[in-house]
Amino acid sequence: MKTKLSKTDLKHDIFVNEYLIDFNATRAYIAAGYSPKDANTNASKLLQITTIKTRIEEAQKKVIEKSGLTKQSLVDDLIQIKELARFDEKNLNNAIKAIEVLNKMHGYNEPEKIDHKHENTTINYIKPNDGNI
Known about the structure:
133 residues
């Protein structure tokens, strides 16, 4: 027996399904029947709702499970692309792109975040990147 969804729940369902198409929250927001006015801001707010975030994460996990992809398999593929492209000047851009993606996946481009705790005070700051990995 199906339960009848409220208008809000129905819009949230449509928003989630549309968002999963291309991860464009603004487009998904409008496609779900919301007003285009302030769509960017309001779509961002929808993405912060716990039930919506959970449904998106669950759907992404299902896609990943079906595909059989793992982070390691993606890293292996990128390394292979990088190695193949290094020896062909025409594909040098592919090698550079593969290296950039690997850097992002491994967080090498992220600045180091440091929390310093002293008594009842915590100071959070980002250590400048010295350019070394």
